[in-house]
Amino acid sequence: MELFFDLVFVFTVTQLTTLLVDGFEPSEAGGQQASPVVGALRVLLVFGVIWWMYSGYAWLTNAVPPVRAARRVLVLVGMAGFLIMALAIPTAFDGGGWAFALGYLIIVLVHAGLYLQATASFVRVVPFNLGATALLFAAGFTEGTLTHLLWGAAVVLVWVSPYFVGQKGFPLHPGHIVERHGLLVIVALGESVVAIGIGAHGVVNPALLVAATLGLALGACLWWVYFGGDDPEAAEHALARADVVRRTQLILGAYFYGHIPMLLGIVAVAAGVKKALGHPLDHMHAGPALALSAGVTLYLLGDLLYRRVLGLPRRPLRTAAGVLALAAVPVGLLGSALAQLAVLTVLLVATLAVRAAPHRESAVVD
């Protein structure tokens, strides 16, 4: 049931990739197009509100497992809310914001109703969620700067709520949290592979096949960073050792905040790969080239934050690789999309290979 839910949620993440790509180049029809900076800002704003509610549902099913028919039906209704939001994302700032807010309202109401079955303390966060929904509805009927300000206010309102609500009364099961977020990362990486198919239009030729393979290899490296060792098991043990309040704080730091750059990194990499596959032998435009490299950087920095919060062994080479990934931007701008993909893939493969070699990199624990 939860994996089914994640598939719908990841569709919203895929729509963020579309939102980001839309800002890379002028509209072929000559219409008004958001700049890359505005496109990136919109991605951050939309991600801010949807990630808050996804995490809320992950905590929800941790406390209220959807084992009864009535609960499953309500979770399905919540999925419908996420689907409505996802469909509205491409036009959320251009007339479709009311539909996004409607989907968000459905999600908030279902979430509140189910969570109250587990703990009455959650009632304290409901006003924050409803307040954010009201701001999103207001944004749906405005234009320009005011729209962005209302979206920003909605993000701030839900993100500051933990400091007012407190972190007591959320006895979370470590195994479920670790597994749930691992499944989300897998599905998100799988959706990034879809970007290869979407971007690979036109005649199939050797350059396209090589670029597509490199795109898949890059996604595989990101998978290996997260799942290549025993980190999920170590994370579960770290959470199990903590008391209830401390565990909640660790989950907030590692799985709410720590996974933000990872997921945004996947979105950016998918957007870059999608554009790269269109013309693999041509120079990359600045937006896609930066997205491709910065996506890798964000993902690796998220991995660093996730590890630091849970006290897992650090991987200094991954941090260095995250910084070096930005150096591949000129390769795409001055060389080709294929060359930038190759450089990033080789960088990650080398980093992972050195880590796998015995006695080549020591594990440093905070």
Automatic annotation (TrEMBL):
For this protein, the parts annotated as crossing the membrane are: 39-60, 72-92, 98-116, 123-142, 148-166, 182-201, 207-229, 250-273, 285-302, 323-350
Entries under InterPro entries matching the protein: Low_temperature_requirement_A
Q: Which UniProt keywords apply?
A: Membrane, Transmembrane, Transmembrane helix
Q: Name one Pfam family in it.
A: LtrA
For the keyword Transmembrane, the answer is yes
What protein name applies here? Low temperature requirement protein A
